[in-house]
Amino acid sequence: MTCSPDRSIRALLGIGGLAIVAGMLATIGGVLPARADAADAKTKLAQALAQYEGGHWTQAREAAQAATAADPNYGLAQAVLARTHLVLGEGGAAQGAIDRAMAAGFDPERVHQLRAHARLLQGDATGAIAEADKTPARYRPYADRIRAQALAAGGDVAAGLNALEGIVARAPQDAATWVALGQMRMGAGDMVGAINAAAAAVKAAPSSPDALRLRAETVRAQYGLVAALPWFEAALQRDPYGYDTLIEYAATLGDAGRAGAMLDAVRRAMAVRPGSAQGYYLQAVLAARAGDYDTARSILDRTGRGVAGVPGALLLGASIDLAQGNAGQAAVALRELVARQPTNVTARKLLALALLQGNAAQDALDYIRPAAARGDADSYTLTLAARAMERLGDRAGAAAMLDRAASPARERSSAFAPDEDLAMLAEDARLTPGDPAVAVPYIRALAAAGNTAEAVAAARRVTAANPGAPAAQLVLGDALSAAGRMGEAADAYARAAATRFDEATMLRLVDARDRAGQRAQASAALSLYLAQNPTSVAALRLAGQWQAAAGEDAAAIDTLERLRALVGDRDAAVLAGLANAYAGTGQPGIAQDYAAAAYRIAPANPLVADALGWALFANDNIGAAIPVMAKAVRIAPAHAGIRWHMAQIAAAAGDRPAAIANARAALADKGFADRAAAQALIAG
Hints:
The chain is an all-alpha fold. It has helices spanning 5-13, 18-29, 38-53, 57-70, 75-87, 91-103, 112-121, 125-133, 140-153, 157-170, 175-187, 191-204, 209-222, 225-238, 243-255, 259-272, 277-289, 293-301, 311-323, 327-340, 345-357, 361-372, 379-391, 395-406, 422-431, 436-448, 452-465, 470-482, 486-497, 503-515, 519-532, 537-549, 553-567, 572-584, 588-601, 606-618, 622-635, 640-652, 656-667, 675-683.
């Protein structure tokens, strides 16, 4: 590889003038003190510059370390080593190299920008600003970027954004500033701006690992896990030992269901940074997913305080505690998590379970009630609420919850209503107009209170103030959905999905498209999401249901078997769906096995009873099928699919009046698909 020392040193040290470059080159070429290892140090430094320019930053650091080993008093080599530490995010090591450079006689006026960067990486935003302000004009572009990042780290994100936008306006080829701007925009929720910044960074510096990693992160948010992998791999081709990239790559592989590749990436990351808390955390995730909770706990404990307070680590630790019977310890972590993320339904369910195991039924009910109050609450949430009510002596309330849990019908999905008082939320929104963090809870509270017109108006104001924020489009969609304007809601969700296509956005979009009568578009959105996120339990469950409803039994088997591999053999709905699908493909023996397993888990669920009755019928056991199917009809008399199965079984048993009655009940549902067959059965 060839290298231009001019460009390399300017890139490394932020030098902005030909006279300065000439001075540096003179240092390299002619001012190096005479000593036996001077030639080796010079050679290693040239290699470091070449590696840096090519985006091979870890190798550049190693070459710079070799240069300083050859001559520890070579000030320029120490300064270059500091810069490689900085680009790799190693603030403490960079500070040490800067100190050694100055001790060796390196000009202190040339290192203020490096000191600022090192202090920022070590969490000293105030010190970073102070050092940046001392930087001479010739190094200001680098220092200005660090100063902007320090302003944001200190809480003034708006000032940081404004500063970075000014820098890229003056220097559109400054890839490092584009990366900083993209990262800051992502943190602020401006995904459109982040995506644009990532594209500009890659255009300015196609070999920059940071630019490629930012592009991977924005692609992951915008399109999905699988689409992001090539971008992570491109970054790793440049710097195979880039720790941050390896960690993000490993996490993406794991979420995409590629456990083996994930473990390989984690091991590579930990070879770069032994004892990495993030590396241990990801290994613990792998062990927990495999059901090895003892190993998961052992590994997670090695993280120490490295991931303390991180939501994912709190949830993982609590899940392990519950699996090991430590409900009290799990509850402590989950209370903290729910306090920080009140709309995290998974955390609420786990916390309610932990509290029930700890005989704190009232607390369990308080935490699960907001989730159970949603029209689309799942059966497990409703069952947890029922168990809490039972222990509190509210048998009527518990019965109502269990009835809802057993019912196959679900209302439309809705936004999570906040616990705060509406008047207080309104005052907060008035004081900080346009701030999504304040406006979103207020808008959701308005919608939950039935003030849908006001909610829609407030949501439109938020989207106007934050045009690049998918969260603003989501809250607008939620408000429109609450107002029953499903087509408009779907359009808002689609705008959100264009920049952040995560699971929550997908579920809203698919539901709104479906309720707006746009099933083909809903199905396309679901298929696109699954292609990028093949281990999404929610997406697989929905896809399997739709395939089964469309009579695509073979496809439903493939989807539901993938889902069963993820959730295990205790999900009655999955087992019942598989029973129906296997029956539909002419495999009644397998169908009956699955249906019987589901019935052992949830005998009061009408869809489970229906699956068992239909599997028995498919196995020519009409006598056993009739009472089970009759039970399903008693529990869910308005369910057209159950009624149609009962009609066919009754006809086969020679009970024509029952067959006709059930066929007519099925036809009463305007959405019932097998109308011609039912009408033919009635006609005889």
